[in-house]
Amino acid sequence: MLTETTMEEIFIIEKLNSKPISKCEKEWEIAIRSSAIAAERARFFQQIAPDAQVPGFRKGKAPFSVLEQHFKDKAQSEIVERLLSRSVREAILREKEDIIHYPAVRDIQFNGDRLSFKIYIELRPKIKLPRYQRIKAKRPPVNVSDEDISKVVERMRERSATFGVVSGRPAKMGDFVIADYSLAVEGKEREKKSDELFELKDEPLLPGFANQICGMSVGETRTITVNLPESFPRKDWANKSATFTLTLKDIKIKQLPEADDNWAVSISNFKSVNEVRDQIRTDLLRMKEREAEAALERALLDELVAQTKFDIAEGSIARRAHYLNEQSKKHFIEHGYAPDKAELMTEERTDEVRKTAERQVRVTLILEEIAKEQKIEVSDAEVDARIEESAAADRNPDEWRSAYANEERREALCDQMRYERVIDFLKAIVAKD
Q1: Distances (CA, A) of 429 to 138, 179, 216, 423, 432
Q2: What is the structure's pLDDT at 433?
Q3: Domain with 380 in it: what CATH number?
Q4: Are 411 and 369 part of one and the same domain?
Q5: What is the dihedral of CA 185, 191, 194, 197, to 10 degrees?
Q6: Neighbouring-strand partners of residue 118
Q7: What's 228's domain CATH number?
Q8: How far apart are CA 149 and CA 137, in angstroms?
């Protein structure tokens, strides 16, 4: 039987008050036993004493009272960290709550003898699954028409185009022009570029811009003013007046090659344009098959989300939204946007990102519940096989393997594979209908 001293050593929480925030969130107010604080303080100094170096004393020979004074701040920090870790684990065991994320510790109060704090926890929602064995969703039909193929051929001809120089006439709609320009918005210069290529065509984001270039001759400079629309990508320029000072340097006309066998040989290893069209058909069919599978998956998940009503913790949505925002900023920066511009563009999508984040959280929780009910699991050997398969296809297989040596990433991959199996399970149900 445990003695009182032993019990105090094992159980360090003196008081725990649980306050509901929502159906899926709670706040725990926790106070730690003073005896546990004293025991942790003694343990800390016992551990550092043999190697402690204090001015005026030989290594490990400083008195306990001197150690307490010299290492006061470090002791306080270490004691709080150790007791927080232990008390969080104890509180979870004591309250027997199904928590879906490591608790957040707040409002730490420590005066040396008394330690109290609050813990915010997110609870796994209670989910009543719909009758997913009868779920309905349709896979879009897949077909590739001659028109689809011809559109790809036209894009390929565009990429093979050459530009002939135009002389003896001014620029007109449909031409391509090379120009230097400076751009001022509301009178303040914002851009200055040389040898920019423009196609003269109606452009909703620059209404009237191309029309004002028409009639210009090579060497001519003209001031062009347009009103930027509300939909302009840079919101700080939208609904403002923009003035281009533009010097026309060259006029060109696009020349497309004929889609014949000679062209087919020039762009590939094919012998004829018919072989090119056959390859396009194969590629389009493969792409549309993938799109159809993705559309079926979206339809399945949308139906599950629509039929499954439950509360989720705001913290779960906020974390996912934060992750999506960080990925969005990274994407914009990788595509040449300045960090402050990437930040602004990300902020403009806040509502959209939050909706996406909530849907993703709901989908994950529903798939986890179905996996549990259907006993769908993924073994360590299967995770290893997926890592090896991906590593073999990567340029740096050793770096790939090293990345997945991280337990958190490995666990995330395991979850992803399990969700894939649940989705395959649902697709099989639909396929029977």
Answers
A1: 11, 60, 65, 10, 6
A2: 66
A3: 1.10.3120.10
A4: yes
A5: -70
A6: 29, 106
A7: 3.10.50.40
A8: 29
What pTM did the predictor assign? 0.73
The CA-atom distances, in angstroms, between 130 and each of 16, 138, 175, 297, 313 are 37, 18, 59, 17, 21
**Residue pLDDT, tens place only, 185-202:** 999 999 999 999 989 999
The boundaries of the domain holding residue 415 are: 271-432
Q: Are residues 309 and 418 in the same domain?
A: yes
Q: In this predicted structure, what is the pLDDT of residue 9?
A: 52
pLDDT at 94 over 50: yes
Asked if the model's pLDDT at residue 96 lies above 80, the reply is yes
Phi, psi of 28 (to 5 degrees): -105, 130
pLDDT of residue 378 exceeding 60, the answer is yes
Q: Which of 385, 366, 381 is nearest to 423 (CA)?
A: 366
For residue 62, the domain's CATH number is 3.30.70.1050
Domain match, 276 and 234 both = no
Tally of domains within the chain: 3
Q: How far apart are CA 92 and CA 84, in angstroms?
A: 12
CB 125 within 8 A of CB 24: yes
- Residues, the chain, total? 433
For residue range 2-48, list pLDDT tens digits in order.
Answer: 334 444 456 888 899 999 999 899 999 999 999 988 888 888 777 77
